[in-house]
Amino acid sequence: MTRAKPWHGMLVATALPLRETPDGDLAVDFDGYADHVAWLAANGCDGVTPNGSLGEYQNLSAEERARVVTTAVAAAPEGFTVMPGVAAYGADEARRWAEQAGEAGASAVMLLPPNSYRADDRAVVAHYREVAKAGVPVVAYNNPHDTKVDLVPELLAELFDEGLIVAVKEFSGDIRRYYRITELAPGLDVLAGTDDLALEMAVAGSPGWISGYPNALPRACAVLWEAAGKGDLATALPLYRILHPLLRWDSRTEFVQAIKLSMDLVGRYGGPCRQPRLPLTPEHEALVRTATEKAIAEGLA
Fold first, then answer.
1. Of 169, 202, 238, 262, which cross-links 193 as Cys (Cβ 3.0–4.6 Å)?
2. Secondary structure (DSSP) of 89-120
């Protein structure tokens, strides 16, 4: 699919490398993160989305969070999108993160609705209205499972009609939403937000995939996305069947740990997570390991 806009294509919600310090803390490896961004660019990805849940933004200091953005922008080659997540408890803080992203050179930002309480439609619109003041294109992120606020198609149409958003990362898990949103808000880009519905969204016409598992398997995922978008199911479907046992982890609570483990297994540093995330249970680790080793055996790493 042609990338007419910076939020089009396969953008990777990047995992963040953390390394243990002598005193037992986990420090951000910014050099390692820069290398990861460059590696993704060299392996078929169209951009990155730093400071999403996969990047453990909730557990970063303000200084770390800002530096993640500037590191990604500095490491990105020309034409490679950096679209940071700017989620925060309040609209004022989210607007400031959007301003920081714009000043750093990011071409767009991704914004959850208020996630500290169950906001009504009026509060959601006010939230996006405030962040839009930063002057950076805003991609809404609908994740009702975690935020308890559902950006239903009617609400997305309202946000789009007011000019507050340019696209939405759709993570409800309901493929029917794609068609309803595009009917109510023609021109609003509906991006694949769940790895395990990437093929279905691409076939429906989605221009972008904000993805998780390309952190470990970028080239295979890029081939999958391009083929599915072209309607080449003979190429896409066999790949999807091999990858799906991994892709479905993107919708599970332990998705960060699972993706980081797969990164380790393919030879890219994933490493540990900061609390409250704990290591995978032995049962979950075995499932991820088996599925990753199968992908490696199939030549997808």
1. 169
2. SSHHHHHHHHHHHHHHT-S-EEE----SS---
Find the length of the chain: 301
pLDDT tens digits for range 85-97: 999 999 999 999 9
What pLDDT is recorded for position 230?
97
From the list 169, 178, 240, 260, the catalytic residue is 169
Give DSSP secondary structure letters for the chain. ----STT-EEEEE----EEE-TTS-EEE-HHHHHHHHHHHHHTT--EEE-SSGGGTGGGS-HHHHHHHHHHHHHHPPTT-EE--B---SSHHHHHHHHHHHHHHT-S-EEE----SS---HHHHHHHHHHHHTT-S-EEEEE-HHHHS----HHHHHHHHHTT--SEEEE-SS-THHHHHHHHHSTT-EEEE--GGGHHHHHHHT-SEEEESGGGT-HHHHHHHHHHHHTT-HHHHHHHHHHHHHHHGGGGSTTHHHHHHHHHHHTTS------TT--PPPHHHHHHHHHHHHHHHHTT--
Extract the residue ranges of the chain whose pLDDT is less than 70: 1-2
Which pair of tokens denotes residue 85? 């997540």
pLDDT tens per residue, range 185-195: 999 999 999 99
The torsion angles phi and psi of 76, rounded to 5 degrees, stand at -75, 130
- pLDDT value for 1: 46
Which of these, 171, 121, 117, lies nearest to 141 by C-alpha position? Answer: 171
Place of tokens 């953008």: 11
175 belongs to an annotated ligand binding site: no
Evaluate whether 210 touches 189 at the Cβ level (below 8 Å).
no
- Out of 33, 141, 178, 213, pick the active-site residue: 141
Q: Is 57 a catalytic residue?
A: no
The neighbouring-strand residues paired with 26 are 20
